[in-house]
Amino acid sequence: MTNECDNTRPYWSDEVIIFVITTIRNTPYMWDKTHKDYSIRYLKHNFWKNLRWTLEKRYKFRAYTNELARKWLNLASYYRLQQKAIFDANARGAQPEEIKRLEGWKFFQQLKFLPFVVYDKNSVDAENLYDSANTNDSDNVSSGVVEERQTTIDQNADSESPTQSTAERIPQFQDSMENTKQLGIEELNVPMEDNDAEVEETTPIAIEPVIDDVQSTPSFHYGMAIAQDVFELDENLKIDAKMEIMQVIVKYQKKQLHRTVMNLAGS
Q1: How would you write the chain as a 3-class SS string?
Q2: A single Pfam family, by name (predicted)?
């Protein structure tokens, strides 16, 4: 079984993704904030390293440890977006068909072990500090840590009133995010052994991390999930899918433009 859809990126088959989810589910200190070992960084450091080794041995799947972490954080973020959509649908009395459709994402059932939380921008962005603040794909780089930062954000979120709106928290969070631009994630970016020459030779050049407001929105994470699904298609299907997606976007952009013109004409 090969994991390569091109020469540089791993192919995330459903089999590999389900194995990653199952392994994390069976390791509570990776996701349960109430677990006694949740804040122990070296355990998480070793977890990603061992998971990388296991995937390579079992599935011939090769990926950097930070790619594994990034995939998991994207899955968790998208699951929570779906949780929020289901929560809102239930609140407005949606029909069972709509709820069933929202639960239809193929990994939704596997991720139900994650604690239910009403969608909070702080919690999703905190879990995705890797995606928004780090674009290194190298296992050879080991810089700062994110766990302390995430713990601080968790504590702040716990101390806030449950009735406080997300809109009130956004300015505070944006200020705090400015201070995280240079933070790395030691437990997610495990250095390789010195004798791993093959990985050493293919290590990409580090890219300066960039954070913007777009990466902090739910729509960004939704777009990333759609892009991942398209990327995993065969090359010819990938091109067709991109073309159809663009055609749909253009169709609704035209409708939006027509609606705007009609509104202006009637005003």
Answers
A1: CCCECCCCCECCCHHHHHHHHHHHHCCHHHCCCCCCCCCCHHHHHHHHHHHHHHHHHHHCCCCCHHHHHHHHHHHHHHHHHHHHHHHHHHHCCCCHHHHHHHCCCCCCHHHCCCCCCCCCHHHHHHHCHHHHHCCCCCCCCCCCCCHHHHHHHHHHHHHCCCCCCHHHHHHHHHHHHHCCCCCCCCCCCCCCCCCCHHHHHCCCCCCCCCCCCHHHCHHHHHHHHHHHHHHCCCHHHHHHHHHHHHHHHHHHHHHHHHHHHHHHHHC
A2: MADF_DNA_bdg
